[in-house]
Amino acid sequence: MDPTRSFMKNVKRVVFKVGTAVVTRDDGRLAVGRVGAIFEQLEALNSRGYEIILVTSGAVGAGRQRLKYRKLINSSFADLQKPQIEIDGKACAAVGQNGLMALYDSLFSQLDVTSSQLLVTDNDFKNPDFRTQLSQTVNSLLDFRSIPIFNENDAISTRRAPYEDSTGIFWDNDSLAGLLALELKADLLVLLSDVEGLYSGPPSDPNSKLIHTYVKQKHQGLITFGEKSRVGRGGMYAKVKAATSAADSGTPVVIASGFVADNIGKVLDGQRIGTLFHRDAHSWVKLNECSAREMAVAARECSTRLQCLSSEERKNILMGVADALEANECSIIEENGADVASARKAEYDDSLISRLILKPAKISSLAKSIRNIAEMEEPIGRVLKKTELADGLILEKTACPLGVLLIIFESRPDALVQIASLAIRSGNGLLLKGGKEAKRSNAILHKVITSAIPDTVGERLIGLVTSKEDIPDLLKLDDVIDLVIPRGSNRLVVEIKNSTKIPVLGHSDGICHVYIDKSANMDMARSILIDSKLDYPAACNAMETLLVHKDLSSSGFQDLIMGLKHEGVTLYGGPKASSMFNIPEAQCFHHDGHTECIVTEDEKTAEYFLSRVDSAAVFHNASTRFCDGMRFGLGAEVGISTSKIHARGPVGVEGLLTTRWILRGKGHVVKGDNGVNYTHKNLDNDEG
Description:
With 688 residues, the chain is an alpha/beta fold. It contains 24 helices and 22 strands.
């Protein structure tokens, strides 16, 4: 449940309003399927004990469609040649209301729900006795689990025209819904629309952002409303006006789509659906808080300034970060201790708590790692290839930053430090989202690191995302964010890959194999097995699958199995191994292309394995645990990739770079290639 919507657990009485665009199709006919799906959700809530009150629009639109048809079939050809007069809206309302309620009654009856109709006008609410009787009638209906259905009685309303007059106690069905929510003491008002909620601009504008929580002090006056819906009276402007009025009076409001399946249930379950209006919203949201897009754009702008610095200046920033870590060791340990205490209180797994802990030795190690990264060869602008295309026309292929990285990681606060240092070295902007269990650790580390970034670059080079709810918005920013790197569970990686158009670099399962050949040195095999599995079992480079040659001696195989069992490893086998050693049979065998190792004394077999196995890392007679950025001499890593495009294996600075081509000429033109003498001569980097 979204923390800002925790009040939903106390909601009992709910007013739902369905707009004309929801209950009718594009051709003006009633949208029977969509209305039926909404009613099924209301029936489910009714059976769970919620008190449901429905306010509906659509009568005028439905009536107009029927009267147009009636007018058409009763008109002569000559009549059709004359200018067509707009059909009276009140007549449309009278005809449409009859059909609308007939449909509603039929649909609710099929769901074994009793509905009731209440038509009201603006003038009715001027009478105190009416308001008292209204409340009594509705309470009586709700006691019988009947669903009262309200609509403005446009047929006899004293307004000049339903679509023109916006005066009175209420002026459309959105404001009627807000008024009824207050009169009937509802706990929640839900306005169902044809869009997902309130956007910062027209929903059709790709730069518009869905506003999850409306804060009057922040959003009022900043929102650009597009055209109102194809039907109905006021569109989103009217809904916002009604929602703010109701919320200010104490009734929370959610504007959500009536087109999305199960949306109503999700709203009542407290999920972050649509736009929430609440009178306390200003206390939940920091008024100066950046949106996801603003944070990403700021990181990009800062990265551009970072790239303009000299190599020595960028190196000095990293040295300053390392010094700041050591200088703030006590504060970091204190905040991390609070996270660890909370994790233990919450009874998190020991393995997670182990990854969470930061000790002085770890902070010293991180500072050392940052200094090593600072001393690396300058990566930005490095010439990878230099070619003379023609006399005086020199082409260079150079390394350059990707742009803005979004890293989503779990548990380990030390990952934040490693990733930030690699981003600075590679000239990239960075957005970080860590796990909630390391919230305080991540906050202090982010503060310490950004304090070392000079104003000439800007501390917003590295942004810390504090809410999980911001991730969906960030994953939509394929025009600003260049790469997403999820570090964590298989579930996290798969969810991210399925939720974005932005390229994703990561591994799914992190499954590693060790293959024991028939010629293997068994003492070496046993040592490699134990290290690959037990040095750090939670790591992605730990062994999951043991494979053995079919001709390996049974006694040698038995010794390996007993060695793993002795160390407390739970074993599952394939069909042969499970029966041979009386262990449970594995349901399936996965592979991921992460790290594979062969243990053999036969060099020819080893070379065959190394050249034929298609994985990010392939080892001969070495533990899979060596597949690590620090151990590979990369200084640190942002993760290990099993993708084949861009970076593969441990991803250090080079994996955060792409290439660009720089061409230097002396007035050269193509002109159909006439007169151009192509040489395509490879040059040393110091030539030309």
